[in-house]
Specification:
33% of the residues lie in helices and 28% in strands. It contains 7 helices and 10 strands. Helix 5 runs parallel beside helix 6.
């Protein structure tokens, strides 16, 4: 069996507010296989976003291990961790995080520049823009795009460097039902057509039903793992 792309071992995160300790994660264990579409669901304060930020190397855990592609994040230097994040992980956030003064094309090109892969996407990525439905919107700035289009540009930016893992934090949180369906369909297509590993954080069980597996979190712990009876069509 191939090595899991993500391994989490007894992960704990404690924040301090004055004399008060806030336990955001309480001994989380999780394995994600390459090519899996995994959804992490839970209410606000359940620890799912903290888990997301630790898996992406954006914040360190208090204790425990995170292995990405077999590499222990805690044993990497800051520079090596940054390099791993640039090459292996793509991020999609609820608020899109597009630069308002740049066109969609330039927002995507910046991701390639930061990763050191040049600014010109490959032909395969041009096909992906058509799948995303934004091929004709590349010269528009974010203010001229709908929320759904902005999120699809954000997805394009996240996958332009072909990361092994796509982390999506509430990617439909700011979208209406029609645009939510479109974005979720894109994420599922990326998973099915390209074998893209996707880990999606959500509070919505209807959104989570798009995954192969649903991890339920509460009070910093994984309390249940379920499998949707069938993916939505």
């Amino acid at each position: 069996m191939s090595e899991p792309i993500i391994e989490v071992r007894d992960l704990r995160k404690v924040y301090r507010a004055g004399d008060v300790e806030i336990h955001a994660l309480r001994g989380v264990n999780l394995t994600v296989e390459a090519g899996e579409l995994l959804c992490v669901v839970g209410p606000s304060g359940s620890g799912k976003s903290t888990l997301f930020h630790i898996l992406g190397g954006l914040t360190p855990p208090t204790s425990g291990q995170v292995l990405i592609g077999g590499r222990d994040l805690s044993r990497l230097s800051d520079a090596a961790r940054t390099e791993l994040r640039k090459k292996m992980v793509g991020f999609v956030f609820q608020k899109y995080n597009l630069l308002p003064t740049l066109s969609a094309a330039d927002n995507i090109a910046i991701a390639r520049y930061i990763a050191g892969t040049g600014t010109v996407p490959d032909p395969k990525f041009e096909e992906m823009l058509e799948l995303l439905g934004i091929g004709q919107r590349m010269n528009h700035k974010p203010r001229a795009l709908s929320g759904g289009e902005q999120q699809r540009v954000a997805i394009a930016r996240a996958i332009v460097n072909h990361p092994a893992i796509l982390l999506a934090d509430e990617p439909t949180g700011n979208l209406d039902s029609k645009n939510s369906e479109a974005v979720l369909g894109v994420l599922r297509d990326l998973n099915e057509r390209l074998g893209q590993t996707v880990l999606m954080i959500t509070h919505d069980l209807n959104v989570a039903a798009y995954g192969h597996r649903i991890v339920h979190m509460l009070d910093g712990e994984i309390v249940e793992t379920t499998h949707p009876s069938q993916n939505r069509g």
